[in-house]
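Fold this: DNA repair protein RecN
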Amino acid sequence: MLERLCIKNYVLIPELDISFPEGFSVLTGETGSGKTIILSALSLLLGAKADKEAIRKGESYAEISGVFSSKQEKILSFLDSKDIFSDDGKIIIRRVIRENGRSSASINGALVTLADLSALSSLLIDITSQFSNQSLLSKENQMALLDQSAGLDDEIRKMSDLFSLYTSSRAELERTEKEISDAEREREYNEFCLEELKSACLSEGEDEEVKNTLSVIENSEVILENMESAKERLQKSSEEISAALKALDKALKKDESVGEIRRTLENLSIDLDEMILTVREKCSSYSFDEYLLSQLNERNQILSRIKKKYGPTISDAIKKQKEIEEKIEKAEKQDEIIDALERRCDEIRKECEAHSLLIRSRRIKEKERLEKKITDALVRLDMKNAEFYIKLEEKELSALGSDRVSFLIKVNKGEKISELENSASGGELSRIMLAIKSSFSSRGDVETLIFDEIDTGLGGETAYNVASELSSLSSSHQIIAITHLAQIAVKASSHFLVSKKAEDGRTVSHIRMLDNSERVEETARLLSGKVNDISLAHAQSLLKI
């Protein structure tokens, strides 16, 4: 529910702070006093388009904020999905308009988009004005209201999941059909490519190995020349070490401590001899084999062509070979694959259709109940000849089933049944919408309902009946109504007066909650346009004060 509304620097309002109680509240005041401004500010808070012209003259910004409370799962889930923390169901919405035309919005301190703000607002408040096409006039919302009233939330979620599975299965089938069709058209080319890749007998890293081997063969003379040179130098070093060992043998006879040096040098001599042997064997391995060189060059050309065509690397070519094999295999099994996918789609489609029929049966049952309930409510609101209908039409299967829902009405005898939004005058439309909301109230999600001048064109007993319906609706909802009729005002549990006056040469709008004596005076004004003993007595009798 809406607990508090704060407005600052907005049109005629420099600063305003209103606390709204539960139950049924009315706002009254002279024409032009600022009631519409308050409603406009509230609409802005709920995501309406911002207009910098609404900023109070002389100010650089306008700010509207509202405090709401709710424990409804849908609202808390929405906040959670946006990572917005709510302490004990409290929701604080703030909207700021700046003189450069930019605006910002936040929920519990977190900046949000207008789309997110509007999405949340639709769960918090529903505003009905005389000629507006509100949520009840939307075909999508009419469907949602019928389903909600029928308790179909779980069934609709299941329908949505099934239909999503069906659409994804259809997409997979269509994608596979295209892939197979493409593969069939490319089959001859793919088979040629596969044969080319298979005949190449590719292996990871072979191109680098061939390249290195070619380099060695092509430079074998230079390599051998330098290896021979290294061998000769090592042999000379070996001879020098042998001579050094002989000299150390002579020194050892005179000094035993030289033995450690000799042993170390002897080990070095052994290692050097092994190195010379290794170099000699390596030298003997070098040879210029023209046939091998020719073979390697040919292999290198094959690998280069493969990489250029299927690469850029041998790994890419090997991967491409596997892909082509899969395409050819899929094309060869196309009938089997398509049949399996078609069977799966048909099975899911049948499950969707069966569940859609279940939903339709529940909708039909609820439709009959609601038609009577709303028609009865219209009778209570002095539309004695009105008849309300809910039309279900079959349409293409969707996530909501296979029905199209439309709210229809016949206002007077002899008239045709027509769409809700095209069938009544402003006053009648207000009562129709009140009857619908009253009938849906027991299962309605929106806790706060605002009615802007729902009394237009009404009077006498009809006004009393409308007031009674609003009062009854307030047992399950917070009701805020802007009215000009005493018959409606006296039924409210709280009465606010909107007024304007000149302050410091400027017009300012104010709003305040009336006490009992003030309510009597304002009701008297609503009754006769002026306050006198007769109107005061009448007001007291209506208010039972």
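The two ends are 29 Å apart (CA to CA). The first strand starts at residue 2 and ends at 10.
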